UniProtKB/TrEMBL annotation:
Protein's UniProt name: Cytochrome d terminal oxidase subunit 1
Lineage: Bacteria, Pseudomonadati, Pseudomonadota, Alphaproteobacteria, Hyphomicrobiales
Keyword tags: Cell inner membrane, Cell membrane, Electron transport, Heme, Iron, Membrane, Metal-binding, Transmembrane, Transmembrane helix, Transport
Gene Ontology terms describing biological process: aerobic electron transport chain
Molecular function per GO: electron transfer activity; heme binding; metal ion binding; oxidoreductase activity, acting on diphenols and related substances as donors, oxygen as acceptor
Entries under InterPro entries matching the protein: Cyt-d_ubiquinol_oxidase_su_1
A single cellular component GO annotation: cytochrome complex
Source domain of life: Bacteria
Native source species: Pseudovibrio exalbescens
Membrane protein topology class: Multi-pass membrane protein
């Protein structure tokens, strides 16, 4: 792959975004788990639950601070590397991000401070309210960011204005309640809950293996297993909803994920596994599950699902339609004070395909001068790389079912078998700690890489979105981000390992005293 300005800018954003998302899911899930633990403490007044809240809250705080640092630097790139994107769609994309800052980030940032420094200054109930406000703020923050991202996947509630040469919002309601954004939100948040549950489960299992902090570890496993099982089940259900929304909004992405070269007649089958061959445009050794894709993608058994070849033909038609819109736009721009109503009507009829004409700018300055070969090439450019998408999706799905089985096992052991965990299971929980992050990164890879060649699907090609920078300038900033993020990674891992090894150190004496008293009271009847 030639590392030109577009590819370098994509590489930089991919690196920073995927690194930032190492912190996000743990923040989403751990904030809720900590709030649940404090709720139990307020209801029972048992000091062990306050100790648990403070211990897991400390790890949450470390992750939260470093997540904020990586998120802020990531946002700089919109103006630095993607200035034309910011100019072209900033009116729509910027609105949810502004709400995220005003409604969510300030909320969680303010109450995070109260959570850590308000233990001795607030009542139990007031501090519990603070804990839940931190959790709510974290999740609302994710909502607004995913509304912005969902609009890039399914650009509703906006239209192109030939006077300003920009996309402008026509309905904030449509942007906010975009079906893709809502499906992505619930799926992403559930994945974050699973991540936090496995983190708590794995660390607690390590304590049991070492014979340390037994009471805290056992209770933490009970909370993590029940919370994680519900979350893992919801990830699968809500992931199915995401698949259904993609069928309507991003047919090419769905076809690439399934390596579906030919249109799949009803009832469409699901390709469980196979070897996609992009050169031959076929999937070798494919194993199909009958009816499954029809149920997932169309909620029916009587609708076909278009394949890559048919979608390329549709893209070619939309490119030709977009050329009509582009030509009309050029005529309109010649005299904005006296717009020809014929040209205006011609533009409005084909304006929905204008973005497809922009695909030709990769090959020719004026899309109207494109050759037939360039039009065909642009149509083929709408096909993302099938192999990576095919396998990334299956890794994500396979891990999802592994999460359900793991959490079901620990839930059974915690609730039915009175916390009797074999050592192999505890070691398994430790080694499975990274897997939810792998699944989450695979999910984002599918979502973003599958959208190519579009920054905003069907509206703005990635090749048009970049800033006018040199390759050297982008390479320099990329190296700077790699260095900066590497330092943050070392700090994150160092602090996490330090405090996990240190274990719970707050309210330890009070918790131990409570258990000693409980043991003496329990022993009295036998004496």
């Amino acid at each position: 792959m030639e590392l030109d300005i577009v590819e370098l800018s994509r590489l930089q954003f991919a690196m920073t975004a995927m690194y930032h998302f190492l912190f996000v899911p743990l923040t989403l899930g751990l904030s809720v788990l900590v709030a649940i633990m404090e709720t139990v403490y307020v209801m029972t007044n048992r000091p062990i639950w306050r100790q648990m809240t403070k211990f897991w809250g400390t790890l949450f705080g470390i992750n939260f601070v470093l997540g904020v640092a990586t998120g802020i630097t990531m946002e700089f790139q919109f103006g630095m590397n993607w200035s034309y994107y910011s100019h072209y769609v900033g009116d729509i994309f910027g609105a949810p991000l502004a709400f995220e800052g005003l409604m969510a980030f300030f909320l969680e940032a303010t109450f995070v401070g109260l959570f850590f420094f308000g233990w001795d200054k607030l009542s139990k109930v007031a501090h519990l309210v603070v804990a839940w406000l931190v959790a709510i703020g974290s999740n609302i923050s994710a909502l607004w960011i995913l509304i912005a991202n969902g609009w890039m996947q399914n650009p509703v509630g906006a239209e192109f204005n030939p006077m300003s040469m920009r996309m402008e919002m026509t309905s904030f309601f449509d942007v906010m309640f975009n079906e893709v954004a809502q499906a992505k939100f619930v799926h992403t948040v559930s994945a974050g809950y699973v991540t936090a549950a496995f983190f708590v489960l794995g660390v607690s299992a390590w304590y049991l293996l070492k014979g340390r902090h037994i009471e805290l570890a056992r209770r933490s496993i009970a909370v993590a297993a029940s919370f994680g099982l519900a979350s893992a089940l919801s990830v699968v259900v809500l992931g199915d909803e995401s698949g259904y929304s993609v069928t309507h909004s991003q047919k090419m992405k769905l076809a690439a994920i399934e390596a579906m070269w030919e249109t799949e007649p009803a009832p469409a089958s699901f390709t469980a596994i196979g070897i996609p061959d992009s050169e031959a445009r076929e999937t070798k050794y494919a194993i199909h599950i009958p009816y499954a894709m029809g149920l997932i993608g169309t909620r029916s058994l009587n609708h076909e699902i278009p394949g890559i070849k048919e979608l390329v033909e549709q893209a070619e038609q939309r490119i030709r339609s977009g050329l009509v819109a582009y030509d009309a736009l050029v005529e309109i721009r010649k005299d904005l004070k006296n717009i020809d109503p014929v040209e205006k009507a011609r533009f409005e009829e084909h304006s929905g395909d204008l973005g497809f004409a922009f695909l030709l700018k990769r090959y020719v300055e004026d899309p109207r001068q494109a050759t037939e070969a360039q039009i065909l090439q642009a149509a083929n450019d709408t096909v993302p790389q099938v192999g990576p998408l095919f396998w990334a999706f299956r890794i994500m799905v396979g891990l999802g079912f592994l999460f359900i089985l793991t959490m079901a096992y620990f839930f059974y052991k915690a609730s039915i078998k009175r916390m009797q965990f074999p050592r192999w299971a505890l070691w398994g929980a430790v080694f499975l700690i990274p897997t939810p992050w792998i699944a989450a990164e695979m999910g984002w890879f599918v979502a973003e890489y599958g959208r190519q060649p579009w920054t905003v699907d069907g509206v703005l090609p990635t090749a048009m979105s970049v800033s006018h920078l040199s390759v050297g300038e982008v390479a320099f900033t990329l190296a700077g981000f790699v260095l900066f993020y590497s330092v943050l990674f070392v700090i994150e891992m160092g602090l996490m390992i330090k405090y996990i090894k240190k274990g719970p150190y707050m309210d330890t004496a009070e918790s131990e005293q409570w258990f000693e008293q409980r043991g003496r009271i329990a022993a009295q009847p036998a004496e």
